[in-house]
Write a structure and sequence with these properties.
five-stranded antiparallel beta sheet; WH-like_DNA-bd_sf; 34% helix; WH_DNA-bd_sf; six-stranded parallel beta sheet; Rossmann fold; alpha/beta; single chain
């Protein structure tokens, strides 16, 4: 509605309590004492668009959340294109959840508690079990929303309060300090050690004729939770690792070049190595004769601009902005740099808790918490971690060259992280070596010298313009000679080295690839 309508803030507040958009429109006078601005000149276009008979259409296309509307899926074949992520999560703050529960308990007399604290402290006492069991029996499979008008007028109201109260009654403590509550109809609630709530509310897919989920790199545990049942049947189109490798090579025409990089967790930006990344991109630019497109983290993209790495990049995108994107579908040269590493509590521990498992980092034989390439969460945790790291790296690789154009298909993709799935055999492996700061100082000093480019320099002369000692200067100059950038002769006092330029103007700024 825009900023010209002061009522917008009130609408957002009511919507945040779990009351649907349709309910807000239909009962605007009850909620706000007046019609909504969109209703003043007739019926709202939003409500008009909702008013249709699904049976008149053979195919309905919508958002994941619209699967909650049973009228849209009843007796239909439902297809999911890619994993819904957190679309079915309800994530109230701890204060929002406990206020909603307290408000509900003060209005509803069926549970023998007056507030959240009483519920948590007395829920296991024998004298309350009959009342609790009776209340649970009255909760129908999908009646988890409080739609009573008197409730909606109460401070702290939330439509999901019955579901939150049910979770409060069922929470059990796991070994990693997470809590989990298994509810009915596939619903599950978790609470982190920091009291962060997540309630998974799958849609009523029992009404559908059948459900098909499409995912190139699925994690079955997550799909089973999202779809709300143990009845998921997993049919792999590519049944073996060899078939997967053949698909990448022959069908997608991808040539994967793996570097010697480590895991390179780039999510936070704290571990971005712009010199190593710059060396890779600079050498790709030089050897391939064109700049690559890059997929990396948002923080890495920003640092590339700060350190001048971006001059070797055609265009770049970050991991979080790839879903459904075809930006690189016709790009023939790409680089995937660094791996996503979202917060482990959200990506691994929470999903483990939703499955009823305590998942956390394991310790090695010396009692040290595992990390890097040896990071270990146990079987389920490793699968969950791979789902958001290794599989996301692979999905990024597969974004390149997927569409044929101009008689070309596929792409060459350099991967600068070790987080690719282990079954992948790269087309080529390369090593990235960065120049030391001393080396960069030497080259800059030579280029800015009065003798540049045709003069000669001794180690002593070079050392006067840099921060390192003559002995170290000599070692670095020998390295430059081995790389073909300079040549030397010996003579004069002490049979000193005299260095002269061969092709220092072509010196790669960040490092080399071999």
């Amino acid at each position: 509605m825009g900023g010209d309508y002061p009522i917008e803030g009130e609408i957002q507040s009511v919507y945040a309590t779990g009351i649907s958009g349709a309910d807000i429109h239909e009962n605007s006078k009850m909620h706000f004492g007046k019609l909504l601005p969109c209703q003043v000149n007739g019926r709202c276009s939003y409500m008009e668009q909702r008013d249709f008979d699904p049976d008149e259409y053979d195919v309905l296309i919508g958002h994941y959340l619209q699967a909650h509307n049973e009228n849209y899926i009843e007796d239909r074949y439902v297809a999911y294109d890619e994993f819904p992520g957190d679309a079915y999560f309800f994530e109230p703050t701890h204060n929002e959840a406990t206020r909603a529960i307290t408000n509900y308990l003060q209005i509803d007399d069926d549970l023998p508690f007056e507030n959240w604290k009483q519920l948590t402290r007395r829920r296991f006492k024998p004298e309350y079990q009959d009342a609790i069991d009776a209340w649970k029996d009255d909760m129908s499979s999908y009646a988890h929303r409080d739609t009573r008008r008197e409730s909606q007028q109460s401070r702290g109201f939330h439509a999901h309060a019955p579901l939150l109260a049910h979770a409060g009654l069922e929470f059990e403590l796991l070994d990693n300090e997470w809590e989990v509550a298994e509810l009915d109809a596939g619903r599950v609630a978790t609470k982190s050690p920091d009291d962060e709530w997540t309630v998974l509310i799958p849609p009523p897919l029992y009404a559908a004729e059948s459900v098909v989920a499409l995912d190139g790199t699925p994690t079955i545990t997550k799909w089973r939770l999202i779809l709300g049942g143990d009845w998921v049947y997993h049919e792999e189109v590519l049944e073996s690792n060899q078939e997967k490798r053949t698909y990448l090579r022959d069908v997608l025409s991808l040539q994967i070049v793996q570097t010697n990089a480590g895991t390179k967790p780039y999510q936070s930006g704290a571990h971005v190595n712009h010199r190593s990344d710059g060396a890779l991109l600079e050498n790709i630019h030089e050897q391939e004769g064109q700049k690559p497109a890059v997929i990396t983290s948002k923080q890495a993209k920003e640092q590339y601009v700060s350190f001048g790495v971006d001059k070797h990049i055609e265009r770049a995108e970050h991991y979080g902005n790839l879903k459904g994107s075809n930006e690189f579908a016709e790009t023939r040269l790409g680089a995937v740099i660094g791996s996503p590493h979202p917060p482990e509590d959200e990506a691994v521990e929470r999903w483990g808790a939703l499955n009823g498992d305590a998942v956390s980092r394991k310790e090695d034989s010396d009692g040290n918490v595992t990390k890097g390439n040896r990071l270990d969460f146990g079987p389920l945790g490793n699968a969950l971690f791979a789902d958001v790291v290794g599989k996301e790296v692979l999905q990024a690789v597969m974004r390149f060259g997927r569409t044929a154009s101009g008689g070309e298909k596929g792409a060459i993709v350099y991967v600068h992280t070790s987080r690719l799935p282990r079954w992948i055999n790269p087309h080529e492996e390369v090593t990235i070596k960065t120049w030391s700061k001393g080396m960069q100082e030497i080259v800059l000093t030579l280029r800015e010298s009065d003798k540049w480019p045709d003069g000669e320099w001794t180690n002593k002369e070079i050392a006067e313009g840099v921060s390192i000692q003559p002995r170290q200067v000599g070692k670095l100059m020998q390295e430059l000679e081995e790389e073909g950038y300079v040549t030397s002769r010996r003579g004069g006092r002490g049979n000193a080295y005299h260095w002269s330029n061969v092709q220092l103007e072509k010196f790669a700024e960040f490092g080399r690839m071999e």
